[in-house]
Amino acid sequence: MEGIERTAMTDTWLKKHRQIYLGATRHPFILGIRDGSVDLSSFKRWLGQDYLFVRAFVPFVASVLLKASKESDENADIDVLLGGLAALNDEIAWFKNEASKLGVALASVVPHPINLNYCRFLESLMSPDVDYTQAITAFWAIETVYQQSFAHCLEEGSKTPDDLKQTCRRWGNDDFGQYCRALRSIADRQLAKASDDVVAKAEVNLLNILEHEVQFWNMSHGKI
Ligand SMILES: Cc1ncc(CN)c(N)n1
């Protein structure tokens, strides 16, 4: 595809891999939040495991920032990524607050093998062999699954219970949506000028991420 214009690679991929994308963003765990049938134990399991995931996500995002500072010609990318780190800071504070409300002892949560597996994958993306294009594309995909999943729970017709709405707004709000669109346009810009090899690797990473996200929901749902 080198030499051929790649204007919106992410769009092409989301169409091509629509079924697996929907598997990640319309998972039964999310549908259970959306219709109010999710049970509290699943929600608490997700909360504890996701807290651990987010802690492991911070160094990954820092690695994307480092790659941007070395490989990107656009200063604005750093601003977007700094905003992402700030959002993660808020996210961690939110997890702590929510856990204390629900009586989840975060310090005693044991990482589930599914979680560890996803964190190992994040670590592989921090390698210097993974360039900025691959890293930013992966970052966009990971954030977008949450944004799209939780935004679905706030759409008209959803029956999300009031006490779960605040969780859904954390990722489903318009600002987070705008932030994901900014990540997406950086990813598309980078992919448009990347080699075929890098584009192929970024697509494989996307598929891996979608699979990890499905597994993560399965774990939260108690189906594994
Ligand atoms: C598993 C997972 N994926 C994505 C996000 C969004 N930061 C998250 N908190 N957890």
Largest sheet: none
Overall SS class = mainly alpha
Number of beta strands: 0
Number of helices: 10
The helix content, as a percent range, equals over 70%
Shape: globular
Order of helices and strands: HHHHHHHHHH
Spans of at least 5 consecutive residues whose pLDDT stays below 50 are none
Strand content: under 5%
Alpha-carbon distance between the termini? 39 Å
Rg over alpha carbons: 17 Å
Mean pLDDT reading: 95
Which ligands does the model contain, each kind named once? 5-(aminomethyl)-2-methylpyrimidin-4-amine
Enzyme class: hydrolase
Catalytic activity: N-formyl-4-amino-5-aminomethyl-2-methylpyrimidine + H2O = 4-amino-5-aminomethyl-2-methylpyrimidine + formate; 4-amino-5-aminomethyl-2-methylpyrimidine + H2O = 4-amino-5-hydroxymethyl-2-methylpyrimidine + NH4(+)
Protein name: aminopyrimidine aminohydrolase
Domain Thiaminase-2/PQQC: 15-220
